[in-house]
Amino acid sequence: MSALPDAAPVLEVRGLRKSYRRGDEVVHALQGVELQVAAGELVVLLGRSGSGKTTLLSCILGWEDPDSGEVEVTAPGAATAWERTAVVPQQTGLLEELTLLENVALPARLAGVPAPRTAALHALEELQIAGEADRRPDAVSLGQAQRAALARALVVRPALLLADEPTSRLDEDLTRVVLAELRRRCHADGLAVLLASHDALATAYADRVVRLAEGRLAAG
């Protein structure tokens, strides 16, 4: 199963271009990137380190300004296009003064999720990290913090999830746990996922694979 039948794109990227200078060299990080991700679809964006994956996600999110091109996010029922968009960056961004459970429960409460602590604990359980719920980020491994950051993103039940190397600190077994949960959420809840990775294992769980090389996208 892939995208929901007749599902409209949740994310559309049209003609995205981004260049920057590195010394005397002009680096063309993105060269006319075109991409769509539909509801219920898990799209894996493959590329080696430095291929432009993070630049593409940053431009989609508005963290960097592209030189040209357009990004459109459509999330029915949201007051703004980005209200139901969740992000898992390479750096987890967990609040060090809060426990993992509190980190996950905070956005749930702000988003009006019923019983936010219960929902947060369930999200941690699904990613096999509930045993560390009462620990703070500096007391767990990087892989455990990475899974907590993903739980924090998923607990608000977003329409679109953008994830930048969310399994980079995990062993193969835990990588499979995370990827299986993302695929389940896509197919059960209609979540649209764009997952940037250099790990070929992710392709086994993808509905569609695209590769980024020298600033250009190609089908996987």
UniProtKB/TrEMBL annotation:
Molecular function terms from GO: ATP binding; ATP hydrolysis activity; transmembrane transporter activity
Cellular component GO terms, alphabetical: plasma membrane
PROSITE patterns recorded: ABC_TRANSPORTER_1, ABC_TRANSPORTER_2
SUPFAM superfamilies per UniProt: P-loop containing nucleoside triphosphate hydrolases
SMART domains: AAA
Keyword DNA-binding: no
Domain ABC transporter: 11-220
InterPro entries per UniProt: AAA+_ATPase, ABC_transporter-like_ATP-bd, ABC_transporter-like_CS, ABC_transpr_LolD-like, P-loop_NTPase
UniProt entry keywords in alphabetical sequence: ATP-binding, Nucleotide-binding
Superkingdom: Bacteria
Family named by the database record: Belongs to the ABC transporter superfamily.
The protein's name: Putative ABC transport system ATP-binding protein
